[in-house]
Amino acid sequence: MSYSFEELTLGLSASIEKTVTEDDVHTFAAVTGDNNPVHLDAEFAATTSFEKPIAHGMLTAGFISAAIGTKLPGPGCIYLEQSLKFRAPVYIGATVTTTVIVTELNERRRRATIETICTVEGKKVVTGEATIMLP
Questions:
Q1: Beta strand pairing call for 78-86 and 123-133
Q2: Ranges for the MaoC-like domain (predicted)?
Q3: Burial letters for 68-98: b for 16+ Cβ neighbours within 10 Å, e otherwise?
Q4: I need a surface site. Which of 29, 32, 122, 127 has the fewest CB within 10 A?
């Protein structure tokens, strides 16, 4: 679905789900060059407070981009800004639910402010706020 600016309303929301795989984490590391062993090396991760490999925070944050670009408002919107708080680790095998909620509309500039929330089993793992522009 795709929304025009005129179709957006305060409180309008959409969600997507994605289960994080080991391949996702390794592919993200290969694409970005972020080879931090806490993501890729089980032996190393076992020595950390996480005890096992975790997904990159920015991989999880990428699900926000997917929700905005494909669901709300959808294709054609332009991402202008994103704040993020990484609140808890995301482990391989976890299903991340990403929800985006329209919180502010600027008709003159055709911009929307969107609350962004990623959860795993109801627990917030990444939160923030995005500003997007619609054509």
A1: antiparallel
A2: 14-117
A3: bbebbbbeebeeeebebebeebbbbebebbb
A4: 122
DSSP lists the bridge partners of residue 3 as none
**Model-level pTM?**
0.93
Q: Read off the pLDDT band of 2 (50, 70, 90).
A: confident
Residue showing tokens 């991340």:
96
pLDDT for 85: 98
- One-letter amino acid identity for 99? T
Topology (CATH level 3) of domain 5-133: Thiol Ester Dehydrase; Chain A (3.10.129)
Q: What is the CA angle 99-128-107, rounded to 5?
A: 80
Report the C-alpha gap between 25 and 32 in whole angstroms: 11
Given a contact cutoff of 8 angstroms between Cβ atoms, the answer to whether 73 and 3 are in contact is: yes
So where are the chain's domains? 5-133
**Residue 1 pLDDT exceeds 80:** no
